[in-house]
Amino acid sequence: MLVVDDHPVVRTGVRSLLADAADVEVVGEACDGRQAIAAAERHNPDVVLMDLRMPDLGGVEATRRILEARPGTAVVILTGPNAEDDVVAALEAGALGYLAKSAPRSDFLAALDLEPDQPLVMNYLAYSWVEQKQNLERAQEMLRRAVELRPSDGYIVDSLGWVYYRLGKYEQAVGELERAVELRPQDPTINDHLGDAYWRVGREREARFQWLRALGLEPGEEETPVIEQKLEEGLTGEPKDI
After folding, report:
1. Residue 160 is part of which domain span?
2. What integer pLDDT is reported at residue 51 of this predicted model?
3. Given strand 28-30, what is the order of strands in its sheet?
4. Which of residues 111, 135, 161 is at a domain's end?
5. What is the reported pTM?
6. Cys staple from 35: which of 30, 55, 117, 218, with CB 3.0 to 4.6 Å?
7. The predicted structure's pLDDT at residue 138
8. What's the pLDDT at 241?
């Protein structure tokens, strides 16, 4: 494994976390993206733990270049706070997953077993595209695959329903979102999503029921006034960003 971070204390900490792992060997370190590319060429690691924000060359571009040269390398992103956009960019560049720098040792060990078809990774990337209204067809296929791999995960099923909604496939959205609510009945966002889909197919009474239910489940401060407005006015025009 190659550890890439511009802070020596982080690199040392990762080494310490993995010191007793019998099947993990840290073969090198790098403090920026250019060093990471050179170290990957020199050591040919199976896994690269990659920081995102580094001087000279950042983790996203370093990930892209390493994978161009060595497509079989598993790159796992090390994240700090407020790095969501960078994480999405790194996943789009080919990283297989992400891990908070504050994560416990068990999570670091689990990260070494990531595979390209890991459903949680696919869900994170695809849902990010859905919320940004980007790559919707690709997100749809990615989420279908994620649901096949993890059919009882309500969050992933909700993501698939929501991309159908964004694509205007409202009947398909209803089917997936109803199943998501069955799997995660206490989640306000999933109930809210189902309410939106019901409204689009003309089931307005059921839509209002779902929105009321979502409010009762204490949604976030930003979601609450949006749901309240829908209860008063319903949905008009094109699907809203909610």
Report:
1. 119-233
2. 92
3. 28-30, 2-4, 47-51, 74-79, 97-100
4. 111
5. 0.58
6. 30
7. 81
8. 43
Note whether 96 and 143 are same-domain residues.
no
Cα 93–4–19 angle (5° rounding)?
Answer: 125
Q: Could you identify the residue written with the tokens 């949905």?
A: 235
Element (H, E) at 224: helix 223-233
Instruction: Give the span between the Cα atoms of 80 and 6, in whole angstroms.
Output: 13
CB < 8 Å & 24+ apart, contacts of 231-240: 234/199, 234/204, 234/207, 235/196, 235/199, 235/200, 235/207, 239/165, 239/166, 239/168, 239/196, 239/200
Two structure tokens written together for 1: 């494994």
Instruction: Choose the final residue of a domain: 69, 94, 111.
Output: 111
Residue 63: name the closest of 29, 46, 40, 82 by CA. 40
The pLDDT of residue 104: 66
